[in-house]
Amino acid sequence: MSYTLRINGEDRVVQDATISESLLFVLRERLGLPGTKGACEQGECGSCTVVMDGEAVCSCLVLAAGAIGADVRTIEAVSPAGEYNAVQEAFIAEGGVQCGFCTPGLVVAVQHLLDRTPDPSDLEIKEAISGNICRCTGYGRVFAAVRAARDARRAGAT
Amino acid sequence: MTTTGVVVVADSLDEALEAAARHPDAVLLQGGTDVMVEVNIHHRRPGAYVALRRVAELRRWHVDEEARTVTIGAGVPYGDMEREPLRGLVPALAEAARTVGSPQIRAAGSLGGNLGTCSPAGDALPVLSALDAIVHLRSREGSRDVAVHDFMRGVKRNDRRPGEIITAVTLPLLRGWQGYAKVGVRNAMVISAASACLAWDRDAGAVRVALGAVGPTVIRCREAEAWLAGAADLRGAAVPAATATEFGRRVGLEARPIDDHRSTAAYRRHAVAVLAERLLRRGGGGA
Q1: From the list A1, A60, A127, which residue is nearest B36 (CB)?
Q2: pTM
Q3: In sequence order, what are the residues at sequence separation of 6 or more whose Cβ sits closer than 8 angstroms to the Cβ of residue A63?
């Protein structure tokens, strides 16, 4: 089957797909957007997080052909190519990136948190990223990165 | 309506009902958090889907002040239930919603999906049972209302007929404390090993309790409820501590748990007894 999805503000045609493909699969394998990572494929790890119609969701649990008409934003769209936004800068500066596999999902989830809640408490930060599994950092550096991103954005960074 | 092969993305309830009638074997897709796990991990290959994500009628909720009820659309996400104003209207549902998966899962999951899947561990289902929810179903032929107790038939079995869509759930607005508790291996992202919802109905002088993940479907503990109503004044005075403990023990006796990969039957029976006693104490019992 063929259909059109709205990805990062552009209409993208998906051709010769089969019906049960996830949005994660279509992004990576059919649309050349490999920034969104796939690991558990059952909504446990958060590495495939994208923003769909304003909500952070696991793209592995979205039926791609059912996402027609939705506004999908992936990690590729969080900042212009070659540039980093405040969240990405904070992850680098605080050592929140180690192997890097969970990072795109975390960056999307954290950006979504700060867009909705500009001044989150520590508990709100923990809850917001409770669905993003990181096996390297132990989360201490991730929390530091989120706090730094929060503070940078409140000081005017984007 | 957008039709792509046999994936129908319905834009209205009428379109969804039409598609469900035309494809009676189609998988009805709400947030996808159960169905897509089956597809990705267990290689389920449905021949047709009706995606309900864009059906605005399923994403609304409203309060009937006269009847003292709230009716929540089958597609309202858990994220809305854990926040005001729904949180204040049905606190136990808000607590259950907050234990569902992660924020990503709660942005997608819904009561319609929980009822459609009808897993014994469905997080919202003990709340619906304790509150005597009414499930609203529609088909092209008409509509019907089913008590949630009759709707949930067994492990992943329910009373939905081909061509029907779960449209909403109606819950009473009760006077009295209500809460939900769940046991699993960690706080976030966990499927419950055992869960319980307890709701006081001060006007009726009753406490209602229902259990999840300790039987083929949700268990309503009517014997323990009746015993408690006879043992304590549930309209006013606090429940004595010894009565709360005995209530928990009796709740445990009504569980029908099994050993599986998530827990053991013995632990589950113990856990629901503790949860029921704890919830009763939290709500003012056990003074």
Answers
A1: A60
A2: 0.95
A3: A20, A21, A22, A23, B7, B29, B32, B35, B36, B39, B49, B51
